Write the structure tokens for this entry.
Amino acid sequence: MKSLFKNKVLPFAAIAMCLSCSSRSQQLTEISCASGGGELGIYVTLRVTRDSLITQYRDAPKKLDFIEKNKSGLWDSLTKNITVADLKTLKSNKSTAYIDDPDEFLTVKTTEGDLSFINIKTEEIKDKRLLEFVEILQGKQTEIYEKHR
């Protein structure tokens, strides 16, 4: 009886341990968000890595690109409490560009692939850590927009 238990449980336990280790080792490498389109045709893009913050503001008559080094700890504030598994719980919504509203895009690059979302609604996020993550990104985009409009 012990050998039957041992032969069935040990392989299952080994597989479970490998799966949990691989999901823990998956790391965030880049966070990008963009909003744009709609009636005004203004685009605001934000790309955050561990050591840089690249922002872009663009509208029809004016194009402005600038690079800002991440001195403010934005990467740390975004990633300190978030895992890839947490991010996978975010939900996309329909595009609104067809009715002249801007769409908001979020792409998270990891060591094992990308996660992409469109028009995440903050009122649908129940996890406070995820809500803070999205609000930080939206706040930074608003800051860029206000600076250049």
